[in-house]
Design a protein that fits this description.
Length: 405
């Protein structure tokens, strides 16, 4: 039994993935001998309804000056953050006197839009390499981890914020109480805290088990976010479903009693009860669903290998580290992974050591089958590769089930 990170109630794990490496630790040849592994198990707290990792590597092992994920590698995500920032500008009527803080701004994919519109903003980003890309876009950055203490220092040096934003960061932070305490202090009286993350309801519905890896310590729902907000005298006032990252949820939070609660909150809580997000029985079948995908994918890849087909993969995602390590996929089954991110290229995938090659080589590679590790970017990628893939080549996907198309 483990103590819940949110409410301290003891909970039981429902799936054990075994030993896992750091999802974004793409290794050079010299690094291969001393890779770090942790034991990846996931559980559900019946009291606050949070799905969470039992153990997570330290933040310094995951987020540092060689962090491998750069947000701006997807055109679709750039458009997503343009729309996101515009919606915040409209909601809070932002102008040149306002102040926006983003927690985990990465390469500035969101804040560049505020800079372009002359809305004062500040990015908090502990991973120095991606932070420096944001700085090149004229975004002011604090190269530290956000927490309650930093929130106080920001308020002292700048002022309270009209909007605090965060995308795909909150679910990474085990010390989330410190984050919420900081937000509570830093937020203006009528400010809003808006964040989005992969949605637990989608993970259950699609069996998108690969959303679980070292960085994702939490899988949020309306239930669990409502619980944390209340704990900090804040209020969840709106929920908006997003199609990004395989299905995400955007949560809007305000000071308690300050703003009207949208009907969406009641609706999503009810919907979550219908699919059993709040019951531990719902999670009991999850492992069997994952193991079915595992059996189907391994049997397909083995058959293709025996038939001497050339199989490569597309997108060296964090998610694929869970897939390759839990399923035991190495370079016996897949020749290599193609990816556009320079820092990942000419390295080996964490744990199972599949070579990662520059995307430019993909077009010369003449594969028979392409395993789509970046399945969340399927629309963008399939469109981009349409003519290449038409020549008797097939995509393979495995979420929600193994399919050739
Ligand atoms: P992508 C990361 O997850 C990590 P990952 C993190 N924990 C998180 O929550 C989300 O992001 C936000 C490449 N690519 O977006 C680029 C191409 O090669 O699914 C990336 O390496 N060609 C913070 O890593 C990878 O695929 C393309 O055309 O699972 C995509 O990674 C496109 C679109 C992408 O995130
Ligand atoms: N918002 C971007 C980046 C997500 S990547 C997007 O949606 O694409 C997650 C980022 O969170 C990383 O860049 C990491 O360095 C940062 N991060 C992790 N812990 C943090 C913390 N405590 N405070 C601020 N940023 C943090
Ligand atoms: Zn709990």
């Amino acid at each position: 039994m483990t103590n819940c990170l949110i409410c301290k109630t003891k909970f039981q794990e429902f799936i054990d993935f075994g030993k896992m490496p750091i999802a974004n630790a793409f290794a050079s040849k010299e690094d291969l001998e001393n890779e770090y592994f942790f034991s990846m198990k996931v559980g559900f707290c019946e009291n606050c309804k949070m799905v969470q990792l039992v153990e997570q590597p330290s933040r310094e092992k995951m987020f540092h000056e060689n962090y491998a994920f750069f947000s701006s590698t997807s055109e679709n995500m750039r458009r997503h953050f343009q729309k996101f920032s515009k919606s915040v500008e409209e909601l809070q009527k932002l102008n040149c006197k306002s102040f926006v803080v983003e927690i985990g701004c990465n390469d500035g994919i969101m804040l560049e839009n505020f800079v372009a519109n002359n809305v004062p903003c500040l990015g908090i980003e502990p991973s120095e390499n991606v932070a420096n890309v944001a700085r090149e876009k004229n975004i002011e950055i604090i190269n530290e981890f956000f927490d309650e203490d930093l929130a106080k220092r920001i308020e002292n040096k700048y002022k309270k914020a009209d909007a605090i934003l965060s995308a795909n960061v909150m679910c990474h932070i085990p010390y989330i109480d410190s984050i919420f305490a900081g937000v509570k202090n830093l937020l203006n009286d009528d400010g809003v805290f808006i964040f989005e993350d992969p949605y637990l309801g989608e993970v259950i519905e699609k069996t998108s088990f690969d959303q679980i890896y070292d960085e994702h310590v939490f899988l949020f729902s309306a239930h669990s976010v409502n619980f944390i907000a209340e704990k900090h005298n804040l209020e969840l006032i709106d929920l908006n479903k997003q199609s990004t990252h395989g299905g995400s949820m955007r949560y809007t939070i305000a000071h308690k009693g300050k703003k009207c609660k949208n009907i969406s909150v009641k609706n999503w809580i009810e919907k979550e009860k219908e699919i059993g997000i709040d019951k531990k029985e719902t999670y009991l079948g999850f492992k069997d669903s994952v193991d079915k995908i595992k059996a189907d994918l391994i049997s397909l890849l083995t058959k293709l290998k025996n038939d001497q087909k050339k199989v490569v993969a597309y997108g060296a995602t964090s998610k694929s580290t869970t897939v390759t390590n839990y399923f035991g996929i190495n370079s016996n089954l897949i020749d290599c992974i193609y990816d556009t991110t320079p820092i990942k290229q000419n390295k080996f995938s964490p744990g199972t050591h599949i070579p990662v090659l520059p995307y430019e080589k993909f077009r010369e590679s003449n594969p028979d089958y392409v395993l789509l590790f970046a399945w969340n970017h399927a629309d963008e990628i399939i469109e981009k590769e349409k003519s290449f893939m038409n020549e008797n080549r097939y995509w393979i996907k495995y979420i929600p089930s193994v399919q050739i198309f």
